[in-house]
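Quick note —
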Amino acid sequence: MLNQSTKSVHPFVFQNTIIIFAYNQNFEIMCKSDEFIKGTAAYIYSVLNEKVSLSPLEKRLSDTMPIAVARNFKLYKGGLFDRTVIFALTHDGNAMSPALLKRTFNLIESRCGSPVILVADNIASYNIGRLTAQRLNFIIPRKQMFIPSLLIDLKKARTKGTDIKGVIPPIAQCLLLYHLEVASIDGCGAKALMKIFQVSYSTVNRSLRWLSKNGLVSLEGGKTKEVRFCYFGKERWEKASPLFVSPVE
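Predicted structure written out below.
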């Protein structure tokens, strides 16, 4: 038979156990979120050579979001190629239909004034096609990145160099002709060329690597490469023209 003092202790011990369990659960969730954020930033840097710092969305903005948004996503603000973007982090990329997701992201974008990017651990293959059809921005860390708002479309990284074909890529030919006929791009970086030609980073990067592999340019600098042409004047034309492909077959 329990004495009175033992009975009075039990509720207190039980209450403390609940508090400790809840604290541990919250701490575990926070740690997983931190790892998810770091993993996302690391993936973006590995693919785009762009450092991204994610910070929680300001309270004045997060307070304006519907409960459904707060329940399904952790919203963070960051920058990509000098553009402010909102990262909507979730561990379940299939919880909402793409149509509902589009409406939700349109609402977030209207209140924040920045494009929204879904970041999910996993998205079912059938949903990836639907998200792409809806032109929704999304990132699956270590697997795929599709951000049409910023003209970025990258799938899982392939073996280095396997995407460089024998025939000159169309944008590589455009780069050469633009440099020869319109204006010099000597010293330009990939970001500047993205803006000039309105194409994705991967397209510019692949074209520059093709030109470098074929000895027409060198890529100089550290993390941010700049184009340096290897030939000048008539010699440049003589080296480049045999590589051109006629647009008419």
